[in-house]
Specification:
Largest sheet: 10 strands, mixed
Shape: elongated
Mean pLDDT: 78
Distance between the termini: 26 Å
Number of helices: 5
Strand content: 25-35%
CATH topology of the largest domain: Umud Fragment, subunit A
Number of strands: 12
Low-confidence stretches: 20-34
Radius of gyration: 20 Å
Structural class: alpha+beta
CATH superfamily of the largest domain: Umud Fragment, subunit A
CATH class of the largest domain: Mainly Beta
Order of helices and strands: HEHHHEHEEEEEEEEEE
Length: about 230
C-alpha cells in the first residue's frame, strides 16, 4: 500500500475506534437492560459476521453462559461492554439513548476516483474527513471514495465505493473481483483483477477502458459495496 493510502486507512480505523471509546466514556459504566434492540443487534451481528458466542464471551471476559443469559435477556449489559461487542463484531452499536431507530454506521470519505479510474486520496492535512452512511455490515476499517465523472461508466457519477479488507499482497481470492488496487508505481485504481502468466504480476480490467497488462500490485482490497451518494 502506498504510504499516503496506508496512513489514511489507518487514521480512519483509529477515528472510528476513538468514536466508540468516547461514547463508552460518556456513558461510563452504567448498565442497560438487554432490550430487544440490543439482543437483535448482537444476534444479527453474530450471524452476519460468522463469529461465535464463545469468541464474544472471550472478548467480554465472561463465560459462554453469561453470553447466553445476555441473549436470553437474563443479564444486564454495561455501556463499556457495548463498545467491546461493537469492536468484536466490527459493526456500529445500536442507538440506546434518546429512542428512535438505530443510527446507520458511518465511514470516512478519504478521496475520489477520477479519470482513468484513478483514486486520489486527500492529503493528511486536509481532514477531518467527510463522513457518509456506510453499509450496514461495515467494519471499523471501512472507508469510502467517491466517483467523479464517467471513469467507471456513465451511470456511476457521484457513486460511493466502500472497501476495508486490504490484502497486502493480493491473493488468489481476488481474481475476477472489482478491487481498489495499489500499483507498485504509486497509482491507485479501481479495476477487476486477473492473473498474468508472468509470476507476481496482474492484469487489470474494466468495462470502459482497455486492459492494463502485467502490472505489479502492492495491495488490493475488494469493493464491499457501490451505491449512489
Amino acid at each position: 500500500m502506498s504510504r499516503q493510502a496506508f496512513r489514511l486507512w489507518t487514521r480512519a480505523k483509529k477515528a472510528r475506534g476513538a468514536s466508540l471509546e468516547r461514547a463508552s466514556l460518556r456513558m461510563g459504566h452504567r448498565e442497560f437492560g438487554a432490550s430487544a434492540l440490543t439482543v437483535d443487534w448482537i444476534r444479527a451481528g453474530l450471524k452476519r459476521t460468522g463469529k461465535t458466542r464463545s469468541g464474544l464471551a472471550k472478548a467480554l471476559g465472561r463465560s459462554p453462559s453469561a453470553v447466553t443469559d445476555l441473549l436470553n435477556g437474563h443479564r444486564r449489559l454495561r455501556a463499556d461492554e457495548i463498545a467491546i461487542v461493537s469492536d468484536y463484531l466490527g459493526i456500529e452499536p445500536p442507538r440506546l439513548i434518546g429512542g428512535g431507530p438505530p443510527r446507520p454506521p458511518k465511514a470516512p470519505l478519504i478521496g475520489y476516483v477520477g479519470a482513468g479510474a484513478i483514486a486520489h486520496f486527500y492529503a493528511d492535512g486536509q481532514g477531518p474527513f467527510d463522513e457518509v452512511d456506510a453499509p450496514i455490515d461495515s467494519r471499523p476499517t471501512t472507508v469510502a471514495v467517491q466517483i467523479r465523472g464517467h471513469s467507471l461508466g456513465a451511470l456511476f457519477d457521484n457513486w460511493l465505493v466502500f472497501y476495508d479488507d486490504v490484502r497486502n499482497p493480493p491473493d488468489d481470492s481476488l481474481v475476477g473481483r472489482m478491487c481498489v488496487c495499489g500499483l507498485s508505481d504509486g497509482r491507485v485504481l479501481i479495476k477487476a483483477l486477473k492473473h498474468s502468466p508472468n509470476a507476481g504480476l496482474w492484469h487489470l480490467h474494466s468495462n470502459t477502458e482497455p486492459p492494463i497488462y502485467d502490472v505489479g500490485l502492492d495491495w488490493a482490497a475488494p469493493v464491499r459495496e457501490m451505491r449512489p451518494r
